[in-house]
Amino acid sequence: MPRAFAVYSSAVPSQNTPTLDSSQKRSAAAIIASQTCTKIGDVLMNPKTVLTWVLTYLGAPAGLISMLVPIRESGSMLPQLLISSWVKRVRHRKRVFIAGALTQAVAVASMGFAAMFLSAMAAGWSVLAALTVFAVARAFCSISSKDVLGRSVPKGVRGRVGGLSATISGLLSAAAAASMTFYRDQKTITVLAWVLLIAAMLWLIGAALYSLVKEPLPDDAEAEPEVVSDLKKRLSLVLDDSVFRNFIICRCLLLGSALASPLLVVLGQKHTGTLISLVGFVLASGLASGVSSFLWGKLADRSGSLTMAIGGLTCTLFGIAGIFIALWFEGLSDSHWCWPVLFLLFNLGYAGVRVGRKTWVVDAAEGDRRTDYVSASNTLIALCIILMGLLTSAFHSFSPLIPLGIYCFLSLMGCGIALLMHRQERLSD
Fold it and tell me: Could you read off the pLDDT of 111-136 as tens digits, one per residue?
């Protein structure tokens, strides 16, 4: 039996939620508070909405704007297979996260200053350069945060920690988006530049809060891994560990749920020319996370794979609904509220996919093996993002409905794999 299978079977929580001691409660609270700040920051500088809006408003070339989402998504995952060997050499993993959060704060602040003071072309390239730095720093945070969570919070509670932070941040993000309507008479780019600077401040606060986490260290210091052999070992996981391999396949297919949501924004762009229009999509994104993530987290503590399946199916259904509306319901399609509402419903499902797969990978292994799982899976997923982008970009020039249909089909297949994983977990319990 593959090691991940045995570990994950013991990781599925029982009916009784684990009791946290005082140190674990403080650590969980610090993680929730820190993640709340950084998640709000994520919403306020989202490349799918805010950064795209900023560069479009400035008049930056379309080629630069089209690079925002691939850089953000793949740039934060592609380096992980290489940097995880270095991360495993650091005993205090929370220090890695804090350094990454501080770097992200500087990167986001530079985006705000670029939008405020530079010309269209210069701002476009500056934002892309800052986003690249942001993405790489996020790669370090992604690996280290899962290790810190695994060390500091027991199984059976971790999903709720992530879900609660997403719920709080989502609701606060929605409130922040709504407050932007008070500045609708101001120059749009000035408002958005200040939004980016506020996001940078949130990362600074998040780093400070994360320093309060009490991170238990391993009893024995492990030998420092040799980079090349360690890299080969992590890559071999995909071939040797069938449970982990199924997770990789499932997550690759469920990428459709991540890549499809910007297409809903594109379909609604005919009504998006003002700050109020942008607020609708930012508000929808925050509400989707805020109203559902804690419930997704509770479900993920019982089964991360089932959570991924339900979330992916939700995305599939509302993605298909978007296609039907665009093709056959012209009156509804032309309404100002249709696409933000559909974007909200779609992202309710995507919140489940995110919470489910993050909880699964934290519960599926312990120690440095968890680091191997996170880095190997994220790097392979980054390659899949690039490949999917290349394969669907040609179709996008004809109609965004074509790649949207492809992504819905892939998400539906991912649901099937996730249900298979859930069935295997129940049989092994």
Answer: 999 988 888 889 889 999 999 999 99
Residue 83 predicted with pLDDT over 50: yes
Residue 17 placed within a domain: no
Work out the pLDDT band at 197, boundaries 50, 70, 90: very high
At residue 404, the pLDDT reads 87
Please name the residues in contact with 345: beta carbons below 8 A apart, sequence gap of 6 or more: 288, 314, 318
Q: Is the entire prediction scored with pTM above 0.85?
A: no
List, for residues 266-275, the tens digit of each pLDDT value. Answer: 777 665 555 6
State which amino acid sits at residue 337: W
In sequence order, what DSSP letters do the residues of 108-131 get, joined into one string? HHHHHHHHHHS-HHHHHHHHHHHH
To which residue do tokens 């440095």 refer?
368
Q: Token digits for 107?
A: 């990167």
The closest of 39, 34, 160 to 94, measured between CA atoms, is: 34
Q: Domain of 328: which CATH number? A: 1.20.1250.20
In this structure, what is the dihedral angle of CA atoms 287, 289, 293, 296, given to the nearest 10 degrees? 100
Q: Report the half-sphere exposure of 161 (CA within 13 A, side-chain side).
A: 29
Rg over CA atoms, the chain:
21
Burial class (CB in 10 A: 0-12, 13-18, 19+), 231: middle
What is d(CA 256, CA 406) in angstroms, rounded to the nearest whole number?
A: 8
Print the domain residue range for 114: 23-214+227-428
Two structure tokens written together for 369:
């093996």
Query: Distance between CA atoms of 381 and 368, rounded to whole angstroms?
Result: 20
Q: Determine, yes or no, domain membership for 12.
A: no
Report residue 329: phi and psi, to 5°. Answer: -130, 70
Q: Is residue 6 part of a domain?
A: no
179 vs 339, which has greater pLDDT? 339
* Alpha carbon distance 179, 324 (integer Å): 33
Q: How far apart are CA 133 and CA 138, in angstroms?
A: 9
Cβ atoms 247, 360 nearer than 8 A: yes
**Is the confidence at residue 403, as pLDDT, over 90?**
no
Domain membership of residue 277 (yes or no) is yes
Structural domain total, the chain: 1
What does the pLDDT read at residue 359?
Answer: 81
pLDDT tens across 203-216, in order? Answer: 999 999 988 888 77
Residues in the chain: 429
